[in-house]
Structures are given as structure tokens and as C-alpha cells.
Amino acid sequence: MNRRNLLKTLSLTVGASIVGTEVLAKIGERSFLYNIPDNPNHKSLDKPVTAITIGAGNRGMVYGGFAAKFTDQIKIIGVAEPNSFRNDRYAKIHNILAENRLNTWEDVFKRPKFADAVIISTPDNLHYEPCMKALAMGYDILLEKPIAPTEKECRDILNLAKKNNRIVAVCHVLRYAPYFVKMKELIANGAIGEVISIQHFEPIEHTHMAHSYVRGNWHNSKETTPIILAKSCHDLDIVKWVINKPSKKISAMGDLKWFRKENAPQGSTARCTDGCKIERECPYSAIKEYVELNKRTSVFDVPAGIKDRKGFITEKLKTTNYGRCVYRMENDQPDHYVTNIQFADSVTASFSMEAFTSYHGRRTRVMGSMGDLVGDMTELVHYDFRTRKDTKFVPKAEDVEEYKNSGHGGGDWLLVRDFVQAVAQKNPALLTSTIDESIESHVMGFMAEESRKKNKVMDIKM
Predict the structure, then answer these.
(1) CB 51 within 8 A of CB 116
(2) pLDDT tens digit string along 1-18?
(3) What single string gives the DSSP state of each residue in 190-248?
(4) 439 Cβ contact partners less than 8 Å away, ≥ 6 residues apart
């Protein structure tokens, strides 16, 4: 079926007004594969935007990956990273000059401004100071979420960005994922009538929880940020974004139930490598996860071409938190968290973040007066109450090859693409996640955490 006939068929199927994204193919009865077309407001660039990456870990590599592939759009000319392995790796990928390879974020700002933008992908507690300094010096900024660890710091960044007329793009990458773009489009164009309620679910997956929020960098909320922000500010943001209504009230409950010292099995030891008697049957065995299954090993900075990879990782388990027993960490992040939100126009939403699942990938149900939407990021099904028929939309996106399991549905690189255009054209309207647009969901997160701790419903004041 050619594209014109396909669009005609789709218009007849679900109503002409809700066809906006480009349909690639009809893949079954009432099933369509689609992608997000190029923004007509994007322009060819005379020269690439230049950027400095502050923090060359996982997220810095993801955003830098776009620059490595699309060299005509953005060029990384500097890096600040204290980890020498990561600094070397990043500099090699982007051919960064020796004088632009810096150790700390402070080193970047000791020099006069030498790029168009900075990418801030440092740990959560190191977002605020480099962002404020970058704004003061006139840089545009791609800022990894969460914006900052406190509401005051978030508002400080917002105010300085407005004062200095700079772009701050918050990495709420789900706003750029074709799956959620289609969901928002359908809702905005009346496919389900008036939105009544939303149920949104983030299954973290049990070993991901153990890796990042029990053993990993975000295990202690006091040293980083609460899990509702560190992991799920994406989710609060996407719920707010797709329904496009202001939030009014929020309540939350949750706790750290399982990953506690009193739940440590008899015979377990401080580390999985210490001769733990139940290691072979433990679902959180570091030896199984990192050595045998070779999962999530980027945290170990394994040198390329190493002969004994397993031996190298095993030694790391003996000296880092990643080898410690999950029941004996200094962790305090809740392993289950439920949130209820009241939006304007009597729209309600419930959000649940759960550690104990065998799967990941966000699930969403949107209930409307004339239909509903049900999806899991691999497909989105629209059911029309009037026709009593459903239509399935399957998103197609170029996801980051190394991070296909990120759960971001291709949004990472689509965000960078729009950021480059916004900086080049000096037009923040080309972005959907500027700090002006993104700060409300952060306030929702701060209020949710206060609600959880105080056991009360919190008003959301913007």
C-alpha cells in the first residue's frame, strides 16, 4: 500500500484529525507502524554546534554518541571527567585536543567561554553548581535529570536561565520517544474524548533495582536524590505532559521493605565473593549478574581488548559496592512507591514504581469519555467506544544501540537532535523539555517525597 492510500485508510480508521505522525507501513488489520517525521522547522546547519561534556559516564556516552554519529550537527570539543579511563575513552571517540581534556567541572569555567553549549551529565548532586556557572558564562545547557536535588536549586536555575536568556534543556527524554509523542497526539486530538484518569506503572526490574538503587550510585537518597526523582521524575513528567493539565495535589506512600539487614539470609556474607553459602541461589548474586551474565558492566570501566574480562570484573567485586551483599548496604531508597495525583478539571492519575518485577518497560492506561489507550512502549492500542474497534500503533525509532534496554524508546537521540537545532537557531521553542516546561514535574516529585514522609496530602504550588 502506498503512503497516500495508507494515510487515507488510517484516517478512515481512527479519524482524520488524529493522524499526525508519519505512518511507515500497515502491518496488520488495524495495525500501523509509524515514526516521527523530521520537524519542518529544523534547518541545515552551516557548521555544527560545539559542546563540552561535563561527566563522561553512562549518560554522557549516550548523548555523546549522537555527536559521534552526526558530526555535521554537533561536535564535542571538550570533556571534564575525573575518571581517567572515561576521560581517555571520551577524548578518543571525539578527537578532543589535549588542552580541552579537563579533570573537574570547575576547570571548564576557569577559562573563557569556548563552546556554544555544555552537556551536564554528572552525578545528581553535581548538577546545580556547574549549571549555574554555565548560565552565568553564557552557555546553553543540556541538563541530565533531575535538574537539582532541591526545589530551591531547581528554581534558582530556572530564574537564572530566564534572566540570562539561555536555553536549558532538561533530559526528560520520554517526551521525545515516538510512543509517548503518539499518545499525546491522540489525546490532544480527541481520540478518547475527555481524559478522565491515568494509570502509569514503572517496573524497575529486580536486578536493575539492586544494581542502581541498592548497590549503585543512587543507593543513598541523602547523598544523591530520592528515587522518585532519580528514577521516576521521567514518569511524573510524562503523565503531566501527555494530559497537558496543571497538577494540584499529590499523595504518596512507599518504603524500603526488602533490601534490609534483617532480611539477609543465613549463611550470607558481606560480599558475594566472600564464600557466601547461598550465592548460587540468590537472585541478586553479583557473580551471576556481572561475571557470568556480563550485564551492566560498564560501571567497571573494563579496558578494551582485555584478555581476562571475567577476572577483571571479579576483582572489582572485591573492592566496590557492586560486589556487596544487597542486604548489607547503606541504602535507604524505597523499593516500592505509589503516588496519586489530582490534576485540573478533575483528572486523576496514579503512578506506581516497583522494584520486584522480572521485566522493565513502562506501562500506561489512559481512560477517556469516548475511548481508552493501553500501551507498554512497544505498542499503543486505541479503543473507540463509539465504533467498538481498536487500532494498534507500533512506534519505530532509532534507539541508542548500546542502550536499547534503557526504556527510553528512542527519545535520547531525538532530544539531542532538537537541542542542537534550538541552540543553532537560538529558539527554545524547538524543544518540548525546556526547564520552564519541566520544572513542574520536579516540584511534583519533591511534594510526593514530602507526602510520603509526612503521611499527608500535599498541595502543588507553582
Answers:
(1) yes
(2) 455 555 555 554 554 445
(3) TTTSSEEEEEEEEE--HHHHIIIIISSTTS-TTTS--HHHHTTHHHHHHHHHHHT--EE
(4) 147, 154, 155, 158, 462
Which cell numbers hold the place of 189?
Answer: 486530538
H or E, element range at 26: strand 22-28
Do the domain assignments include residue 57? no
Q: Are residues 341 and 213 both part of a single domain?
A: yes
Q: Are 74 and 416 in contact (CB under 8 A)?
A: yes
Task: For residues 295 and 202, state if they share a domain.
Answer: no
Do 292 and 441 sit in the same domain of this protein?
no
- The set of residues, in sequence order, having a beta carbon less than 8 Å from that of 241 and lying 6+ positions away, is 172, 175, 180, 184, 432, 437, 441
Question: Is 113 part of a structural domain of the chain?
Answer: no
Q: What is the pLDDT of residues 373-424, one digit of tens each?
A: 999 999 999 999 999 999 999 998 765 444 444 557 788 999 999 999 999 9
Residues 247 and 268 in one domain: no
Residue 1: Cβ within 10 Å count: 11
Q: Please give the residue range of the domain that contains residue 16.
A: 3-35
Residue with cell 554528572: 122
Q: Are residues 336 and 241 in the same domain?
A: yes
Q: Are residues 449 and 393 in the same domain?
A: yes
d(CA 394, CA 31): 7
- Say how far residue 86 (Cα) sits from the centre of its chain: 21
User: DSSP string covering 68-93, please?
Assistant: HH-TTTEEEEEEE-S-HHHHHHHHHH
Sign of the torsion formed by the C-alpha atoms of 150, 153, 154 and 155: positive
Half-sphere exposure of residue 240, counting CA atoms within 13 Å on the CB side? 27
Distance CA 151, CA 160 (A): 14
Contact 328, 264 (CB under 8 A): yes
Whichever domain contains 230, its CATH number is 3.30.360.10
